[in-house]
Amino acid sequence: MSTFLFNEIVFGPVKSRRLGVSLGINLLPTTKKICNFNCIYCECGLTDESNQSADNIMPYRKEVCYELEKKLFAMKRKGQNPDVITFAGNGEPTLHPEFSEIIGDVVKLRNNIFPDTKIAVLSNATTIKNPKIKNALLTVDLNILKLDSACDNTIELHNNPNRKIYSEELINDLKTFNGKLIIQTLLQKLQFCQTRPQ
What domains are defined for the chain? Predict the structure, then answer.
């Protein structure tokens, strides 16, 4: 599978089969992936575990706002209306230290420029226990949260988390959203090697 990194803070718009015209926001470095998962199918490639303390190269809050405002006004001048502004990018967006504040900024920008546009966050859901992050997520329109398995061992196999993830705990955390979420799951066909009887 070929992999790539998003080389801008604001990218697109791109046409998404499920979201429509989507304008992306990458809160992570443009030169590497920052994630607490290392999913075997990730479009951004593998996570470099040796260098995960990269807060200093994540975009600043003001920089994100500036780039988004510039892009939204450029789209407005061209008569292009985004269906959704999507937090995605090079890893897990909720790991940005100012994630909650940036969500608030983006909601204000959206309300001022394209009030009918939805805001989506693609997340692996491992940080939703943090009240600040959860409250920020509850202010957006589409929480697209990952749950690839209800079994601890297959989470370990498919997602390679950097700490132990307990599926029951994760599911209980997802339930606290009271339905204000979309569960994103990648289904994989597992093939087992069988030996012929002798």
Answer: 10-184 (3.20.20.70)
